[in-house]
Amino acid sequence: MRARWPARRSVPATGRSPRPSSPRSPSAAETMCTTAVLLDPRLPDQTGLEAEAGAVRTVLLAERTAKDLGQWELMASAFAPDARVSVSWFQGSGADFVESARARSARGGSPSFHEIGAISVVVRENRALADTGCAVHIRGTLEDVPVDVVSRGRLCWRAERLADRWLIAGMDMIYFRDNISAVEPGAPLALPGSVHDQRPSYRHLAVLLRDMGHPVAPDLPGADRPDLIEALFSEQRHWFFS
C-alpha cells in the first residue's frame, strides 16, 4: 500500500510587500515540487525508502549550511558534475555557483543566510525530488539606508545517486513574496521608483541585488506566475521518471 503523505500547512509570511497581482496565487501544496509526482502511478511505494530519503536530506542541508558558513569545499562536494542551479542571482552549473558564491563572499559585505523548513523527499531508483519552505535573509544598502530583505519561497531539488552517494543534480527556487525594512528601527526608507517595475514575488530582492551588482532574471518561477511554476514541475517530472 502506498504511503500516505500528511498535508502541509501554509505558514503566512508577514511583511510590507504588495500581494501578487495574479488572480489566484498557488496554494502551498501546489508549490511543493514533490506533489508534482505524488499521484503519478509510476511513483514507487515510499515505505522502506526512509534511509535513502534521509541520505538525500543530509546532502541538501550540508550544501545550504556550507553556503551560509563559507565552507566552499564542502559546498562543492554536494553537487553532481552536471548539476544546474537557478536562483535569484545565479543561473548556471553547480561548480560555477560555488565559485560565484566564493567570489561574492570575498568581496565582503554582509552574507546572506537561509532558514530551511522540513524537507519533503520522494525517491525512485537512483533519483529523488525534494523541496522545502525557505526564507532567504540578505542585508545591504538601498538609497544610502542599511536594509534587510527577507525573500520567502520554496527550494526545489533534484538529487541523483552516483557511485553510491547522493548528490545535487539541480536546485531551483520558487518565489512567493518578500519584504524590506530598515536595519535601524524608525529610519526613513525611500524605495526607488524602479521597485514597481519588478515582479511582485521578488521585487525588493531584485532591486537590492541589482544595486549590489547582481541583476535578477525577470522570468523566475513565482506565485505571480503559476505558468512558470508548472513549467518547472513538468521539467522535474520528466527528469524524475526518465
UniProtKB/TrEMBL annotation:
Low complexity composition bias: residue spans: 16-27
Transmembrane regions: none
Region (Disordered): 1-31
Occurrences of domain SnoaL-like (ranges): 65-171
Protein name: SnoaL-like domain-containing protein
Species the sequence originates in: Amycolatopsis pithecellobii
